[in-house]
């Protein structure tokens, strides 16, 4: 069986983990946290980053940082993971579902424009499969209508915005990355908050440290720390940071290898324009086909299975989920439903050989 996914194992993980076993500090903010921060700064040049235990953590932190109050409206694509909604719902926001574009699951700007009201507090573009959402338009709307933009960049580590040298995650007021083991690089469970709006920087550390000013204490700025704000426990342990450091060190190679395999799929399947695929690999987080109906997709899954290939569909649009249905603003989101019914992801990870990818692509052709 060719599995749909295999998490990446990097060279130095065991070595770094045994160093954590030896070092006195196992809890967060130790030497491996520092090393990850320094490396990420070199790799991405983000203004300010905070590591967390997940992208879900980072999204929750973002929701507190922008002071979501009951009744504030937050616009998210319906075609996304539940955390994009939960983080804001937990703070009392009204979630407003936006449709996907016709040719890609990312937010449709026209749909977004029709949903903005004076109560819109934030818009959460999701960069599906590593492909950036239309950020220039979204940031332009944010200036006109004065809402925050929180990028859900869970799948995007290593992607760049089109026609710029800028890394995805550097445009929104805040961005949230995932290092869950389904992502290009990982530390089992992990995440990162990127703060591009400087007034949020100091408070973000307080929220992360259970609502205390512990970071200021550790920096020698105050002589004891105390409870000053809301907060939770979002700080990852040194064990997670040890694995993440090793994975970050190999990010470039991992991305390159994924892009090579992505290109094999695309050379064989990209011409099938009825089955939409993105035209660029971005960070090659996934490769997918879009079948014209749920039935066609089910038939394709069976064909792959008969050839020992495991595939995976993705999100059920949230406006149709049992929980989302209760408060959905809109049951007419045709593009989100098209991707919900038709999108199927093929195996894509560095451990696959070119022969295996060629084989999967040949079988894929027979399903189209
Ligand atoms: C778009 C999106 N947002 C958020 C998350 C949550 O990430 P995590 O598992 O790190 O909390 C995921 C998980 O896959 C995701 O796909």
Give the SSE map.
Blueprint: H1 13-22, H2 31-44, E1 49-52, H3 55-65, E2 73-77, H4 82-89, E3 94-98, H5 109-115, E4 120-123, H6 135-145, E5 148-152, E6 174-178, E7 191-195, H7 201-208, H8 214-218, H9 238-249, H10 251-269, E8 287-290, H11 294-306, H12 334-342, E9 343-346, H13 354-367
Parallel strand pairs: 2-3, 2-4, 4-5, 5-6
Antiparallel strand pairs: 1-7, 6-7, 8-9
Residues 54-56, 80-81, 83-84, 126, 152, 154-155, 178, 180, 191 line the site of pyridoxal-5'-phosphate.
Polypeptide structure, described:
It is built from 13 helices and 9 strands. Strand 4 (120-123), helix 6 (135-145) and strand 5 form a beta-alpha-beta unit. Helix 1 runs antiparallel to helix 9, helix 3 (55-65) packs across helix 7 and helix 10 runs parallel beside helix 13. The strands form 2 sheets. A 7-stranded mixed beta sheet has the order 1-7-6-5-4-2-3, sandwiched between helices. Strands 8-9 form a two-stranded antiparallel ribbon. The longest helix is centred in the C-terminal third of the chain and has 19 residues, at 251-269. It has 2 domains: 13-249, Aspartate Aminotransferase, domain 2 (3-Layer(aba) Sandwich); 251-367, Aspartate Aminotransferase, domain 1 (Alpha-Beta Complex), CATH 3.90.1150.10. By secondary structure, it is of the alpha/beta class. The structure holds pyridoxal-5'-phosphate. Pyridoxal-5'-phosphate (PLP) is lined by residues 54-56, 80-81, 83-84, 126, 152, 154-155, 178, 180, 191.
């Amino acid at each position: 069986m060719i599995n749909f996914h295999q998490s990446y194992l990097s060279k130095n993980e065991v070595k770094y983990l045994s160093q954590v076993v030896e070092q006195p500090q196992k809890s967060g903010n130790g030497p491996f946290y520092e090393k990850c921060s320094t490396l990420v700064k070199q790799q991405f040049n983000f203004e300010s980053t905070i590591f967390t235990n997940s992208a879900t953590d980072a999204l929750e932190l973002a929701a507190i940082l922008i002071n979501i109050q009951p009744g504030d409206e937050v616009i998210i694509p319906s075609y996304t993971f539940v955390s994009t909604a939960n983080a804001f719902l937990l703070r009392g926001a009204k979630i407003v579902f936006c449709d996907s574009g016709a040719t890609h699951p990312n937010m449709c700007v026209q749909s977004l424009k029709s949903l903005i009201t004076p109560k819109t507090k934030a818009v959460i573009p999701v960069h599906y499969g590593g492909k950036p959402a239309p950020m220039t338009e979204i940031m332009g709307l944010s200036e006109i209508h004065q809402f925050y933009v929180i990028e859900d960049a869970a799948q995007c580590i290593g992607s760049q915005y089109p026609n710029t040298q800028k890394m995805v995650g550097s445009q929104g007021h805040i961005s949230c990355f995932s290092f869950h083991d389904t992502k290009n690089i990982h530390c089992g469970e992990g995440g990162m908050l990127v703060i591009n709006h400087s007034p949020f920087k100091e408070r973000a550390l307080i929220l992360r440290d259970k609502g205390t000013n512990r970071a200021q204490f550790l920096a020698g700025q105050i002589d004891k720390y105390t409870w000053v704000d809301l907060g939770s426990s979002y700080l990852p342990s040194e064990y997670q940071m040890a694995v993440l450091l090793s994975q970050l060190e190999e990010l470039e190679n991992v991305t390159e290898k994924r892009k090579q395999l992505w290109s094999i799929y695309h050379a064989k399947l990209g011409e099938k324009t009825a089955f939409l695929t993105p035209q660029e690999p971005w960070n090659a987080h996934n490769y997918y086909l879009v079948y014209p109906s749920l039935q066609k997709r089910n038939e394709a899954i069976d064909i792959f299975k008969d050839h020992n290939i495991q595939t995976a569909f993705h999100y059920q649009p949230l406006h149709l989920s049992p929980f989302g249905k209760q408060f959905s603003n809109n049951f007419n989101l045709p593009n989100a439903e098209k991707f919900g019914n038709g999108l199927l992801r093929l195996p894509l990870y560095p451990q696959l050989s070119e022969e295996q990818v060629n084989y999967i692509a040949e079988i894929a052709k027979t399903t189209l």
